[in-house]
Amino acid sequence: MSPLLTVEFFYGVTGAVLALVAGRIALDAGHPKRWGSALFWGLLAVVFIFGKILPPVGTGYLLLTMVLLAAAGQVGRSNEATSTKPERVLRAGVLQNRIFWPVLLIPASAIVGSLCLGRIHFGTFELADPKQATLISVGIGMLLALAAGLTVTRARITVPVAEGSRLLQTVGWAVILPQLLAALGGIFAQAGVGPVVAGLVSRALPTQFPFVAVAAYCLGMALFTVIMGNAFAAFPVITLGIGLPLIVQQHHGNPAIMASIGMLSGYCGTLLTPMAANFNLVPALLLELPDKHAVIKAQVPMALVILATNVLLMYFCVYRF
Amino acid sequence: MIKLIGVLVVAAGFALRFNTLLVVLAAGIATGLVAGMPFNDIMALFGKYFVENRYMTLVVVLMVPVIGLLERYGLQERAETLIRRAKAATAGRVVLLYTAVRQISISLGINLGGHAAAVRPLIAPMAEGAARARHGELSEQTVQDIRAHAAAAENIGNFFGEDIFIAVGAILLMKGFFDALKIEVSLWAMARWGIPTALVAFGVMAWRTRELDRRIARAAKPPGPKEGGA
Predict the structure, then answer these.
(1) CB 3.0-4.6 Å disulfide test: which of A99, A137, A155, B151 passes with A159?
(2) Residue B131, SS3?
(3) Whether the complex's predicted ipTM surpasses the cut of 0.90
């Protein structure tokens, strides 16, 4: 029997939120980009709700339409008014620490969810798919937090819809960038971009020296992650192309140490690249930073120091243990 | 070599500041065409992967209504008020403490936090509040500096804690990769060798947050009268 709670249900909820955003924009005569924006969020709602049923090529063309709308400057923010700082300070004084309860339900639900969600079952009937436990507990946490938030603030249901819509529009079309970049990564993988990069790196360097082999592997992981935006995509390619033949087979290094530190070198690449939009660009927009690369700029010194340490760490350990 | 055309399109497009979505789509189409795929197949691949990766957007979309509601009722302001009472708090220390909490919890398999659920509503306002309690009103540039580091703490804590827990993506991916090649590698060994880098990452964060606190103090200090000496 299929589990009661699946991620697909929460994709439906997400789609419903997006549809509400689209609807609000369509009804807002003062919206500067009324129809383009309504269409953009509406199409995204369709992809979330019907993604599993739609033929992929159909989704592809919906996506093409959304990208063209954004590129033509037809997706914009509403100029709805929100609360002012003095109003919020006043309300914060009234609610005191009760305002935190709903937010704390989100991590609490993550803890409970990751510990037990995948284990609850009645005979063969599962409550939730264990593989999706993390996402499902985020979804449940959000619904609980919303219910608690409405109770604590005694606000009407239209308030979270209006505020959510406003916040989502401050992120704007960039909200689909992570998914689009993940798709680009998939196409790079299908087209065989990886072996070309691995070949270039290993041919350009004198890898007969053990240190150079280690440096080529760690830097290759970081570089290819910068290109793909995802260390998981880089790992098989760079490990097959550089790590295994040079570090393990030629120089008899330890594969566990190589893999572990290699993956973490890939993460240094993630810290550096706009291709990892969900980690680097969307947060900049969420925090309303005018420079959308501000998060990457803060991370550059950290990533470079960690990467350099990884190279040394791997060199001193991988051939020894 | 010609297969790298997509990378070139992305680099050029980003550098010339074209619309990012358009650049990414164009890079995918160029790469696909060079690899001999028909246009409809490329669209189908975009559609397939876009749907498979809906989870990336799910969290942000589901969080904004709750966060928006609570922010309207003074969540950020209350977080600031609370932190002002903690005398030892500085922006850098708040951010560093969050890094530690994030690293430790995720290394135990618990995924707390996130940019939408924790950084925007709590961590960034608390860090800003701590800085305001010490130095008074902050310049726009200082506020942005603090926020960027709060977002970085989320990433560093998340990335460099995760690989210590054996039942998550990265370790399982590596295990599957080696199993397919019939190379014997233990999950525990891979998880254990994630620890040194995790400690280094925390140390780097400690250094950057100290620098952040110094920058904040320097920006806040009014240029005093020059004291004697050459």
Answers:
(1) A155
(2) helix
(3) no
